[in-house]
Amino acid sequence: MRDFGLLEVLTILQGMWTTLALSAVAFIGGGTFGTLVALARTSPWKWLRVATAAYIDFFQGTPMLMQLFLVYYGLPVFGFHVSAWTAVAIGLTFHASAFLGEIWRGGIQAVPKGQSEAASALGLGYIDRMRDVVLPQAIKLSFAPTVGFLVQLIKGTSLAAIIGFVELSRSAQIVASTTYKPLIAYGLAGAFYFAICFPLSRASAYFERRFSLKT
What we know:
By secondary structure, this protein is mainly alpha-helical. It has helices at residues 6-41, 46-61, 64-74, 84-110, 113-121, 126-156, 168-179, 182-214. The longest helix has 36 residues, at 6-41. It starts with 5 loop residues before the first helix and ends with a helix. The relative contact order is 0.16.
């Protein structure tokens, strides 16, 4: 057993930076694919809407932990041997794309249909209507729930520890097991989570109030 000192604090701090990096990768990747999911869910082709609806239902209807297991243990079955970092990044990206796609789908469909019909009457095609008329308004409507989901995604990265990925909660567990001071280790990790998530939660509430007044 060793004392809880600067090295232990730096270990947990390193876990926090790893959590932030993983969250950023998952959010950016999920946002990219989520945009495609949202556009597919609102496309004029029924088969595409049905396919993406099934995709969303799978990721919203199954635990994130199971999704991480499927990626981490499933890819080697097909000959793709990946690290824990890569597996977690892939799993969280798909998870985020389903939820962000559904959030943004709701934002797109919340835009008054008359505006899209007016744009169509002016001769704008589907892509031009979405880019110039619908999406700018849908982004404002979806901003608050998007930030809210980011908070959930950051906290959800703690599940990555189950497949050996060392993020904030796992680093706290390691420190607690070597110092036998779990209250301090987990308390510090909780403080770091709070420092990250609380400002984002307040920002989400702020954007919700701001944009609800304008719509």
